[in-house]
Amino acid sequence: MDLFDHASQKETASLAPLAERMRPTTLSEYLGQEHLTGEGRFLRRALEADQVPSLILWGPPGTGKTTLAQLVARSTGAAFETMSAVLAGVKDIRETVARAQDRWKLHRQRTLLFIDEIHRFNKSQQDALLPHVEKGTVTLIGATTENPSFEVNAALLSRCRVITLRGLEQEELVAVMRRAVADPRGLGGKVTVDDAALDFIADAAGGDARKALTALEAAAAHGGSVVDRKVAEEALQQKLLLYDKGGEEHYNVVSAFIKSMRGSDVDAALYWMTRMLEAGEDPVFIFRRMVIFASEDVGNADPRALGVAVDALRAFQLMGLPEGTLPLTQAVTYLALAPKSNAVIAAYAAVREAVTKEGALPVPMHLRNAPTKLMKSLGYGGGYKYPHNFEGNYVPEDYLPEALRARCFYTPTRNGFEAELSERYETIQQQLAARREASGEREPGEDG
Fold first, then answer.
1. pTM of the entire structure?
2. CA of 152: how far to CAs of 52, 132, 149, 295, 440, in Å?
3. CATH architecture entry for 170-239
4. Fewest CB within 10 angstroms: 72, 197, 267, 390, which?
């Protein structure tokens, strides 16, 4: 590195956001996770013994997952490789693994691979990573805000130690901000921030250290040399939103959001959506609820609704924030105004009840597979009518087990496209009834 490179790096560091400038460089500077890093705790013992296993760091935003990964790499002397699961693919994993193999062969240096938002990796990406974690080619540290039991496949999860990070307490956030006010890397003592302002910002940050430092930086820029509570409120330009991501109000707001879409109140749906976003909710969580809603509450009344919800999620993953609010808003307005039907979930519930009550009924002989002569001679597949050989590609036939014949599980509504499906369904049922009558078949229960 020459003088110009060094000067450029210093200038870049000075322009970085306060939260980045104040990122801890030693474990002693790291606040808020004493249950992991305190004396005698798991992570500190692992670092002291230089035996850090692959880890999954699970916790809300701004709790220090990335910082902790960097500190682990620095403490162990490992090379630090990082990638975002949103942007990386299998090719990136292979290239990183190749560098790790060369690094070990040439310098006997281990590689720590940090994957941010590891829950965004699909199964094939996780499978590509698995053998290299298993062999120890890389020590994996994955960061996620989602429950890894649901988002990380079992094979990869079994080779990692899951550690849970918690949101920072009020006093911990205040301590983080006091250090930033005094530290030369931060505000360097050029600004005075009173206790009321620090308490207000810590309260508004909701356990997120990055959010607290970003708000502190905005308040310092807004208020000059003195920051009090009024200045902090003006800088944030919003009051604290009542929304506890882990508590009752979280579920209340989510419930209001879903019920507003179900009730076709687009304005209310947008309000509750924005409440969640502004309070720091993971947008992917909102999208998931919308994908569920598209099947559960819209269903075949508008089959396009599911595609709209899924496409909006994909668009968000490509765009990120803040632009990702556009496909989110577009999908919410579409779902809220779409015709509604819960026939899909009602149909599944009815079929599930029948399966549970009747057990494993035998497959009718004409529907059974007959790959051998013996099976054909026993009547497997006998009498099956191939629908494409008939006019309209349909022929009345029974496909349910005999004990369930004439049972109707799906009851389409007359809303939207489902009205057309309802007409088709009724026509098919009428043709089936006529076929049974013509063949002299009795409906179940007619013989007493």
1. 0.52
2. 20, 16, 6, 25, 56
3. Orthogonal Bundle (1.10)
4. 267
